[in-house]
Design brief:
By secondary structure, the chain is an alpha/beta fold. The chain contains 16 helices and 11 strands. Helix 9 links the parallel strand 7 and strand 8. The chain binds glutamine.
Length: about 500
């Protein structure tokens, strides 16, 4: 018998609609599963009452005949989204106890579509990280374990690590993530789920704690491509409260899904073959190429010549914007305040920020402040902005030849907690395949493609033209159908 927690977003929506089960039973099942999975540390706060209230209104809506697109679907919300009256920390101690008086547009859209909230998901502090180890609330532990007896706890990826772990552990059918330089795609790949970062501007950033405003985008993470399409439709849309929000209709991505790729051209960029990447990553990439060919796509070798500058460019621009965005956490306006005895205002600022921010956030603020300083602005920030334009132009040119790009999502499978945390450069390298699409603002998705020799998931990334989420989702579906990825982490928690 399938348990309710084995169902994804589409199956829950459809089952509630047809009366196969009640929304309340679904919410209760996930709430109970989340309680049993506390060892994973996926949630910072659980909000069972919110999920149950939404479920009850879904059950009433079924009777009165006004079900909405996500009626009866309980979701996890990354703690970067401001939620009215519910603690929102962005994974940072500096925001401990902060209860926003407003709702982020994306979470408001999801709730308006009928979804409920199971809780706020753990994440790297201010979304800075690739392993969830920078969280001020302790790391999330991946539900996956190696099959070779190595029982060291694994990283779920980051920064949306709580989101990834929650879906993989079946304690939420779908979740929100945010992606500034890979934070939806890399964790999705690490735990064998799907996740899409839409075109920059599709989802409103209003009420999402800002990290690097020119890069931040919200997106869904879920068990499969269809579930991602359903959620993205509810999350996206124009919002006058975000000046970079795109004033466009939200396409009917789910209804248009098609795994038939005849007439599509898919580019394989040679610059993504980099040294030191395990052979299994190449194997899964080759497999992905075959699957897309089988689905009817034509495969074309292409070049994105500035790819190797993407990572250093990202690690100048993102900290620069972060150093500016994080200036607001001064002990006056939000959350924590540390007031040294006999100190003045500046002492309070310093003590608050020293106590409230973790090491990675401080590192980024220092790097960002440095690259924006009068003496180094031209050498670093300005130069990075120019290189960013070249990276975007690489993609512009490649769209003359192909409709999509296929690459691996990350250069490795999940690593152990602690394995890279002492070496920021090693950690940053994990984003190497993810950041180019972020710098160019393009839609990009990760779908699970297979397992490595240790039994850990590997993901493939699809990147599309601006606003062409449909082609990205379609190719994701083509891979999903052929990969037949139905592996799951064995429940040890
Ligand atoms: N891992 C990257 C970083 O640390 C990306 C984070 C993100 O996308 N939020 O900046």
């Amino acid at each position: 018998m399938t348990r309710l927690t084995d169902l994804g977003v589409a199956a829950i929506r459809d089952g509630v609609r047809s009366g196969d089960f009640s929304a309340r039973d679904v919410a209760s099942a996930f709430i109970e599963a989340a309680e049993k999975a506390r060892a994973l540390n996926a949630f910072i706060v659980e909000t069972p009452d919110h999920a149950l209230a939404a479920a009850d209104s879904a059950d009433r809506a079924r009777v009165s005949g006004d079900l909405r697109p996500l009626s009866g679907v309980p979701l996890g919300i990354k703690d970067l989204f401001a939620t009215r009256g519910v603690q929102t920390t962005a994974g940072s101690r500096i925001l401990e106890g902060f209860e926003p008086v407003y709702e982020s547009t994306v979470s408001a859209n999801l709730f308006a579509a009928g979804a409920g909230m199971l809780g706020k998901l753990n994440m790297d502090e201010f979304a800075m990280g690739s392993s969830n180890e920078t969280s001020g609330y302790g790391p999330v532990i991946s539900p996956w374990r190696r099959n070779d007896g190595g029982n060291a706890p694994l990283a779920p990826g980051g920064s949306s690590g709580g989101s990834a772990a929650a879906v993989a552990a079946r304690i939420a059918p779908g979740v929100t993530g945010t992606d500034t330089g890979g934070s939806i795609r890399q964790p999705a790949a690490f735990v064998g789920i799907s996740g899409i970062k839409p075109t920059y501007g599709r989802c409103s950033r209003w009420g999402i704690v800002a990290f690097a405003s020119s890069l931040d985008q919200a997106g869904p993470m879920a068990r499969d491509v269809r579930d991602c399409a359903i959620m993205l439709e509810a999350m996206a849309g124009f919002d006058r409260k975000d000046s970079t929000s795109l004033e466009l209709e939200v396409p009917a991505w789910e209804a248009s899904l098609s795994a038939d790729l005849r007439g599509k051209k898919v580019g394989i960029p040679k610059e993504y073959r980099i040294e030191g990447v395990p052979a299994e990553i190449d194997t899964v990439w080759e497999q992905g190429i075959e699957w897309l060919r089988d689905a009817g796509a034509e495969i074309v070798q292409v070049s994105l010549p500035h790819t190797r500058y993407a990572l250093p460019t990202y690690y100048i621009i993102a900290p620069a914007e972060a150093s500016s965005n994080l200036a607001r956490y001064d002990g006056v306006r939000y959350g924590k305040r540390v007031q040294p005895e006999q100190g003045g205002l500046n002492d309070m600022y310093e003590a608050t920020r020293a106590a409230g921010f973790g090491a990675e956030v401080k590192r980024r603020i220092m790097i960002g402040t440095y690259v924006l300083s009068a003496g180094f602005y031209d050498a670093y920030f300005n130069q990075a902005q120019k290189v960013r334009a070249l990276i975007a132009r690489d993609f512009e040119q490649v769209w003359n030849e192909v409709d999509l790009i296929l690459t691996p999502t990350a250069p490795s499978a999940a690593f152990a907690l602690g394995e890279k945390s002492a070496d920021p450069i090693a950690m940053y390298l994990n984003d190497v395949f993810a950041v180019p699409a972020s710098l160019a603002g393009l839609p990009a998705m990760s779908v699970p493609a297979g397992l490595d020799a240790q039994g850990l998931p590997l993901g493939l990334q699809l990147v599309g033209r601006a606003l062409d989420e449909q082609s990205v989702l379609d190719a994701g579906l083509a891979i999903e159908q052929r990969a037949g990825f139905n592996h799951r982490a064995e429940a040890w928690w």
